[in-house]
Every structure is written in structure tokens, then in C-alpha cells.
Amino acid sequence: MMRRSLLVGAFLSLVALVAAPPAARAQDAASFINNLGVQAIQVLGPSVPQATRLARFRELFSDDFDLRGISQFVLGPYWRSANPQQQQEFLRLFHEYISETYATRLAQYAGEPFRVTGTRQENGDTVVTSQIIRRGGSPVQVDWHLTGGPGSWRITDAYVAGVSMRVTQRDEFLSIISRNGGRLDGLLAMLRQRVAAR
């Protein structure tokens, strides 16, 4: 009886999600990004030690970003040609690398006011627009691309001042692979070195 009740409850939750009007889904996505912005930017102010900020970004990337999807995108055809061991190593190294990169990059905005400015649908994604309000400077526009739905949102890309996070990483990584004769091992070696140096 209890199992049946759980199944019925799960089914009703799924129906509620599918039936949720677009405005409700957009509001939920906006709330998700607002909470993320508060945690990642406002809370992690200049007084927060770098090690604490990095640990928090590792957690955010694990919980809120589609790390596997982003990894497949940035490697392009090399993801498909990689063996399972290389894929797993890349996922681990990329997680560390991207956490450090964005913990450092967003540190310049730490403690600044953050606000969500709108939502829109784009190519199947929900895009939440936001601004980081810099004191004495122009606001920085950040557009967050989301997949999923209420309770399961995942970030697939973030455009900071019009620049795509994942496209930037793809261009950088594919250039490194190209310089190493088209071998993924060259990129993995570079990532190991950079992660070990931090």
C-alpha cells in the first residue's frame, strides 16, 4: 500500500511538472538562478578565503551544472573517440579546472549586488537573464542557459558579457589538442599539470 502511494505521488508530481504553465516554469528558473547568484557572488565576498570560495564553486558545479553535457560539448568529436578511462579522467580534471577558473574569474564581482532581469525560451532552453551591479561601473550581463525543470534545473552554459563559457573552453581545448597532433592525451597532460599546480 505504501509503495502504491509513493508511485501515485510520484506520478502526480510528474503530471504537475508537465502541466505547469510556462510562466510558473520561468519563475522557478528565475528563482533557481537568483539563489545561485546570491550564493556564488554576493555571499562569496572579498573577505572569503580563496580555498573556501574554490570549495563552494566545486559544489556548485557538481550540483547545478550539466558537467557531463558541457564536457561532451567542449571536446566535440574527441569525446566520442576517447576511451571510457579518458572520459572519466577528463570529467574529473575538467571539474577541478573549471571550478578554479570561475572561482577566480567571478571573484572580481564578489560581494556585488546580483539580480535576475528576465527569462525567455531559446532553442529548447530556458534562458534566465541577470546582471551583476558593479559599484562605479557598468552592470555585467550574465545569461544562464538551463535544461530540465522545477527541482531538476541544470545549467548548460553561461554567457558573461556576451561570451559563452562553454564555447570559450571548447576553442581553448580544441586548440591545445590540435597543437598536440590531434591527441587527447596532450590536453589531459596540460589539465593534470594545471590542476596539480593549484
Task: Please tell me about this protein's structure.
This protein is an alpha+beta fold and 198 residues long. It has one domain: Tgt2/MlaC (Nuclear Transport Factor 2, Chain: A, Roll). Helix content is 60%, strand content 17%. It contains 8 helices and 5 strands; from the N terminus they run ααααααβββββαα. A 5-stranded antiparallel sheet has the order 1-2-3-4-5. β2 (125-132) and β3 form a beta hairpin. α6 crosses α8 (184-196). The chain is globular and about 45 Å long. The chain starts with a helix and ends with a helix.
Note the topology.
Elements: H1 2-19, H2 22-42, H3 50-64, H4 67-75, H5 77-81, H6 84-105, E1 114-122, E2 125-132, E3 140-147, E4 154-160, E5 163-164, H7 165-179, H8 184-196
Antiparallel strand pairs: 1-2, 2-3, 3-4, 4-5
Helix pairs in contact: 3-6, 4-7, 6-8, 7-8
Can you summarize this structure?
The chain is α+β, with helices and mostly antiparallel strands and about 200 residues long. It has helices spanning about 1-20, 20-40, 50-65, 65-75, 75-80, 85-105, 165-180, 185-195; strands spanning about 115-120, 125-130, 140-145, 155-160, 165.
